[in-house]
Amino acid sequence: MQIAQVIVNNNSYQTDKLFDYEIPTDLFRKVKRGIRVMVPFGNGNKRLEAYVLNVIESNSRNSKLKKVLAVIDEEPILSEDQLRLVFWMRNQYLCKYIEAIHCFIPKSMVNKERKKITLLDHSWEEVLPSSQKKLRNIITTLQALGGSAYLDLLMQHIDYKEINESIKVLLEKNIIDIKYELNSKINIKTEQYVRIKIEEEQWQPIISSLKRAKKQKILLEMLKEVKEISVKELLERSNTSRSSLNSLQEKGYIEYIDVEISRNPFGDKKFDPFYKFEPNEEQKKAIDQISASIKNESSETYLIHGVTGSGKTEIYLQLIEKVLKKGKQAIVLVPEISLTPQTVSRFMGRFGERIAVLHSNLSDGERYDEWRRILRQEVDIVIGARSAIFAPFKNLGMIVIDEEHEHTYKSEQTPRYNAIHIAEYRSHLENSVLVLGSATPSLESYHRAIEGDFTLITLKNRAMKSNLPTVEVINMAEEFHHGNTSIFSTELLKAMADTLSNHHQTILFLNRRGHSSVLSCKACGYTVKCQYCDITMTFHSAEKRLKCHYCGNVKNIVKSCPECHSEEIKYAGIGTQQIEDLVKVNFPKAKVQRMDMDTTSRKGAHEKILESFKHQEIDILIGTQMISKGLDFPNVTLVGIISADTTLNLPDFRAAEKTFQLVTQVAGRAGRGLEEGKVILQTYEPNHYSIVASTHHDYESFVKDELMIRKEFHYPPFANLLLLNFSGKNEKQVYAIANSVATNMKYILYSEGFKELDAILLGPNPSMISKIKESYRYQILLKDIGIPFSLLKKAVKYLLIDNRSKYIPQGITCTIDINPLSII
DNA sequence: AGCACGCCGACT
DNA sequence: GTCGGCGTGCTC
C-alpha cells in the first residue's frame, strides 16, 4: 500500500506534523512529493488542502487510514530543493511546516474551503416552533443576506457563539443545506482566443456555403491567415461583432480557447536602455574573480565591500550577463524595491523583458502572475525584496544581495527568516554563487569574511573617479553655547545658501517623520501618549493632528495639559515636517520637497518625487532613511544630516553600527558628479567612535572598535541570540507566563549541567515599547555563552513547540525570533 | 484551525 | 432542569 505523508493547510502547532493517507490506486502515478492534494480531515471529514512531503510504501495494511481524495497539481508545486529548504527552515527558525511552505507559494494559490449555508424552500415556520428564537434568528439573518451565506459572514451577523450546534439542528430538520465551496483564489488571468478548425480540403465548399454571410466569410479568411488570435483583436481588426463569430462556432468551423496571459505590473512603462560600460580596474578584477566561480558552479559566497558610488550595480549586471549566457538564472535582492527604483530601472534597462519584479505593493494577483512567469521559465532574472529569495527558479546560477547590511532582509513575521541565511543555504543546495554587496557590510558578514567563510572583495574608489565627499562634524552643544538655538547650525545654513546660489542640489536627512514627536506640558511634564500603545504621539502639521506611529491612532492636538490645565505645551523631537517648514522660512525662494512615508504613500508618488528631483525641479530634498540608499544624482553636492543622534541613542547593541551605516550611506549621496560633495553632520556626540569613523569614511577602524565591544559584551557576531516575545491584553498574565517559561527554561538548562544562567538568560523584561495596540509585551533574551546554541533551541522547542499548550494559554501570543536584528 | 465533548453557572 | 459559554483534546 502506498501512503502519502502530508502537512495539512492548518496554521496550528497541534496539526504541525505529518499525517498519513492511503493513496488510492487510480492516483498512484499522480501523487508525488511536493504536490498538493485534498484530504478528509478531522471528525467531520472537512476537506483540506494538504502538501505531500513524502510518499512511502507500507506492507502492513492499515485499514484505519483515510484516503487521498484528489490531487490539485499536475506537477509538484514544491521542488526537491524547496522541500529540503522547508525542512531546514522548520529546524532553523523553529517554525511550522506550513509557515515555511507558505514562503514558497503566493497567497492567492492557497485553497481554503468555505462553508456555504443555503436556506431551502421549506415552510420552516411550521416546523420550527416560535419558541426556537435562536434558530429563527439564524433563518431571518440568512434571508436578509439573500437566502445563502458563507458561515464566516453569517457569524458576523449573529452574536452568540455556538452557531455550529444550531446549524446542525437546522440541517437535520432539512431547513438548510450546507455546501463546501473551494475558496480558490487562483486567478490565472485568461483571454479568449479563437482557433480555426477547418482543414485545407474542406475550405472551398465551406467558403461557398457562406455566400450570404459576408461577415463570417471575412472572419474565416482572416483566421485562415493567422490560425489563432485573441477574440478581442480579431473583432477589432475585422470590424465585426461577436454574433458572427458565435455562429461560426456553432457550425464547428472555429473553437474558443482560453489562453493564459500575464498582467504586467509595470504597465506600459518604458525603461531607458542602460548601456554596458567598461569597468575600471577594481570592477574588472571583481568581475573576473566571481566569474570563475560562476563558471565552476561552486557555491561560493563573496562579500563586496565597495565605497558608495564604486559601481557595484555594474558588477552585478555584468555577472548576471555571464550567468544568463550559461543558461542559468539569477535572483537579485534589493532592500525595498520602492526605495530603490533607480537600481530596478537599470536592470530593466539592461535586460528588458525577461525580468520579474517582486515588490511589496504588488496585488495578490500581480504577485501570482510574476510567480507564474518565473515557473514557466519566461524570465531569467528576479529582482525583488526579501521574499524573492524563494523564487522558483529551476537552474539558479547566482544570488545577489545588494545593501546586504539592511535590516529588511530579516522577516518581521514568522517564520522570522533572514534572507541572507536562506540565500546561503540555497546557493549551497543549488550550486550557485552568492554575492553580497554593501558600502557598509554588516558586522556579521564582515566578520565571516575575516574568518574566511566569505571571500572579501574591496572597492576603494568611486567608479566615476569622483572623490568621496568631505564630512564636517558640527558639535551642536557648542552651537548652542554660541547662542544658536536653531536646529540648523550656522555652517549648514551657509552651505545651503551656497549650494542654492550655485544651482546645485541639497539633501537633508533626518530619521524621524512628522512635525514633533513629543508634546509635553512645560508646567508638569505630562507627555501625550497613545492610549493603546506605550509611545508618545507625533504631531503632524499637515493634518494638524497627533498620530501614533505604531497603531495609526489619530488624536486632536491638545491645547492645554489634561493634568494641570497649563496652556504651555512644548513641541519637542523634531521631525521632517518641521524641517520642511523651517527650510521654507529660511529659504523662501527655494523649491523644497519632503520625502517620507507620509508623502509617498500614494502609488507612484515615490517615482514622481525622484523624477522631479532628477530634472532639478527641486532644490532641497528633505527625507527620512528612505533617501539614504540607491539615489544617484550627480548634481547633489550637499548633504545635511540634521541629527545623527536619533539612531545613536537607541538602547540597542546595534545602535553604533546603524548610525555608522546610515551616516555613510546618506553621505554617499553627495558629490557623485563632477563637483566635489560636502556633508555636514550635526550631533551632540562628535567624539563617538562611529561618528568619527564615518567622517573619515573609515569602515575598517569602525569595525575594529565595534568588534571589540561586541566580543566583550558577548553580542553577535560572537554570540547567537534567541528572543522570546510574549504579548497579551492582561499585563499580569503576560508577565506570569513569561516568568514561568523563564523558570522552566532555567530548570532545563540547569539540569543539563549549565549553572551560569545569568549570562545566558535575561528576563523576562518589559519590551522597549511595553505596549502596542493594547497588548502588553515582555521578552526573554537567550545568548549562547558557554552553551551550544543548539541546546538553547532544543529547550525552546521543548517548551514552546512540543508542549506549547501547557505553557502558553489562549490570549497570550508568544513568538520565537532566532538571531533577531534588534532586541528592543 | 475547526470541531466535539463535557463541565458549570445562570436563567426560564 | 437546560441553555450557552468555555476549556480540553483530537485530527492520519
Automatic annotation (TrEMBL):
The top EC class, named as a word, is isomerase
Which reaction is this enzyme known to catalyze?
Couples ATP hydrolysis with the unwinding of duplex DNA by translocating in the 3'-5' direction; ATP + H2O = ADP + phosphate + H(+)
**Which residue windows are transmembrane per the record?**
none
Q: What is its EC number?
A: 5.6.2.4
Q: Which cofactor does it need?
A: Zn(2+)
The record's keywords, sorted A to Z, are: ATP-binding, DNA replication, DNA-binding, Helicase, Hydrolase, Isomerase, Metal-binding, Nucleotide-binding, Primosome, Zinc
What are its GO cellular component terms?
primosome complex
Q: Which residues bind Zn(2+) 2?
A: C530, C533, C548, C551
Domain Helicase C-terminal per the UniProt entry, residue ranges: 556-724
Q: Which CDD domains match?
A: DEXHc_priA, SF2_C_priA
State the source organism's domain of life. Bacteria
Q: Where does Zn(2+) 1 bind?
A: C521, C524, C561, C564
Annotated Helicase ATP-binding domain residues? 293-459
State the Pfam families in the record: DEAD (PF00270), Helicase_C (PF00271), PriA_3primeBD (PF17764), PriA_C (PF18074), Zn_ribbon_PriA (PF18319)
Tell me, which GO biological process terms does this entry list? DNA recombination; DNA replication initiation; DNA replication, synthesis of primer; double-strand break repair
Give one GO term, molecular function aspect: 3'-5' DNA helicase activity
Q: What does the UniProt cofactor note say?
A: Binds 2 zinc ions per subunit.
NCBIfam families linked: priA (TIGR00595), PRK05580.1-3 (NF004066)
Query: Which family does the similarity line name?
Result: Belongs to the helicase family. PriA subfamily.
According to its UniProt entry, what is the function of this protein? Initiates the restart of stalled replication forks, which reloads the replicative helicase on sites other than the origin of replication. Recognizes and binds to abandoned replication forks and remodels them to uncover a helicase loading site. Promotes assembly of the primosome at these replication forks.
Task: Give the quaternary structure.
Answer: Component of the replication restart primosome.
What is this protein identified as? Answer: Replication restart protein PriA
